[in-house]
Design brief:
This protein is of the alpha/beta class. The protein contains 15 helices and 20 strands. It has two domains: 357 residues, ANL, N-terminal domain (Rossmann fold), CATH 3.40.50; 99 residues, GMP Synthetase, Chain A, domain 3 (2-Layer Sandwich). It is 34% helix and 22% strand. The strands form six sheets. It has a seven-stranded mixed β-sheet with strand order 4-3-5-6-7-8-9, sandwiched between helices. Strands 19-18-17-20 form a four-stranded mixed β-sheet, with helices on one face.
């Protein structure tokens, strides 16, 4: 039997051995991969039970040896965030200190307490989160990317002069922003070859900056890259990338076609989250393969009951099998996905994943007499996301000049007061992006999936 990982938070490990294991497991039978997952799941449950106060009391009623791992109760982000200090397994981690740490932009490439990567979540679930990753977990994410991702093969063929532009949410020490900054700070050369652009700016400004930089690689959310593809087709964006990497939202077949028609280049897709940065990577056959030996994904219905292979889920329970400083076990991610059995032309033994619902609609508003103004989901999400008293929310464009907001408030908050703040912030943001005269309307329906499409989208357009 393979030696089990040692049981402490600060695991000692050999990077080369870990690399070999990930490489070798990629070629194993599906049965062996499932066994690997089950062993690691048992390890993290037992570690969390012993080392995290929160899980210790949550699991109190569970028998010492678990016959059925599905008896482990699911958790939500709000539950974990409400019990933050008892959730983490390192007693030196303090929430207030960590909040201050991630709020300071100069810490983007630094490690909290000198040993943990830390970031905030950028709100795809409509609720703020704070995440920490230990060195072992970071190594696993990096190696998965390097060994199983196509990105590295593309990168190997790129001309050395190629520069990389990431078009992402910024200003909150978010996961992608933090990781890009880590690359930039490796050397002055890295800093010149890699730049971060915020999605939160008017399209013309973004296009002008990219025209000056001329990146060979463009990374970003599908909605942002699609917008750039349109700008390229119309002759405004001169950048002509060799490779496009998309993540963070669902990549629809239509978006993929529009992007590849415009840029005529390779597109690679990955599915990651603040909770686990490389959940699934795209193979040369165009399928997303989740790294189920390191992240357990359970597509579930509204009652947290498993859904069949191929069926769209209401949510997905994620377990991070690599990270111990902040155990994430059967955690309700909110994304609608479906899993299919391993059966791909590329020969991978990993299952195939498709994403059904995640924010991603570009909104187009009529802007007075001039042409339409395009607004990317992340830029208006952020205007609502920063409000502590708001719970879940949803932004729906309901007319050429109308944005409807569905929202929940925290139990002790005044709904009318929250609404007046949220409306003001959204209006200010829309004006800043050039969408003048858009009416921001309140809905009394709670955020949620719509019966006709059965998927939850944080930002969407109902305008043809
Ligand atoms: Zn494949």
């Amino acid at each position: 039997m393979a030696p089990r990982d040692d049981t402490t938070l600060m695991r000692s490990y050999s990077r080369l051995k870990l690399r070999f294991r990930i490489w070798a497991d990629t070629r194993k039978e599906p049965r062996d991969i499932r066994r690997r997952q089950a062993e690691r799941f048992e390890d993290i449950v037992s570690f969390a039970r012993d080392e995290s106060e929160f899980y210790g009391s949550l699991y109190e009623h569970l028998p010492e040896s678990l016959d059925d791992l599905d008896d482990v109760p699911p958790v939500t982000k709000s539950e974990l965030m409400a019990n933050f200090d008892g959730w983490v397994t390192d007693p030196e981690v303090e929430r207030d200190e960590l909040e201050a740490f991630v709020s300071d932009p100069s810490n983007r490439a630094e490690k909290y307490l000198g040993r943990y990567l830390a970031w905030r979540s950028s709100g795809t679930s409509g609720e703020p989160g704070l995440f920490l990753h230990d060195q072992y977990a970071i190594t696993v994410y990096d190696l998965l990317n390097a060994i199983r991702g196509q990105g590295n093969q593309f990168l190997a063929e790129l001309p050395p002069s190629d520069r990389m532009a990431a078009v992402v949410a910024t200003g909150g020490n978010y996961a992608t922003e933090t990781q890009m900054e880590r690359i930039r700070q490796k050397s002055p050369l890295h800093a010149r070859k890699c730049r971060i652009y915020t999605v939160d700016q008017p399209t013309e400004e973004l296009v002008a900056k990219l025209n000056e930089y001329r990146p060979g690689i463009i990374m970003g959310y599908p909605s942002a890259v699609r917008l750039l593809a349109e700008q390229h087709r119309s002759g405004r964006l001169l950048a002509d990338p060799d490779v496009v990497v998309v993540f963070g939202e669902r990549l629809t077949a239509r978006s993929r076609r529009q992007i590849s028609d415009a840029f005529e280049c390779a597109i690679t897709n990955l599915y990651g989250a603040s909770e686990f940065t490389t959940i699934a990577l795209e193979c040369p056959s165009g399928n997303l393969h989740p790294n189920v030996d390191w992240v357990r994904l359970e597509p579930v219905d509204d009652e947290y009951e498993p859904v069949e292979y191929g069926e769209p889920s209401s949510s997905v329970l994620l377990t991070n099998l690599a990270n111990r400083v902040q155990p994430i076990i059967r955690y309700d991610m909110g994304d609608s996905i479906s899993l299919h059995p391993p059966n791909c032309d590329c020969g991978s033994s990993l299952p195939v994943l498709s994403i059904k619902g995640r924010s991603g609609g570009i909104l187009r508003f009529a802007a007075g007499q001039s042409e339409e103004v395009t607004v990317l989901p992340r830029s208006i999400e952020a205007a609502v996301d920063s409000d502590e008293s708001i719970g879940r929310f949803q932004l729906i464009q309901t007319a050429e000049d109308e944005l409807t907001v569905r929202f929940d408030v925290r139990t002790d908050a005044d709904r009318n007061a929250v609404w007046s703040d949220v409306r003001e912030r959204l209006q200010a943001k829309l004006r800043e992006l050039g969408a003048n005269g858009v009416e921001v309307v309140r809905s009394d329906r709670p955020p949620g999936a719509d019966s006709d499409s059965e998927k939850f989208q944080l930002v969407q357009s109902r305008v043809a």
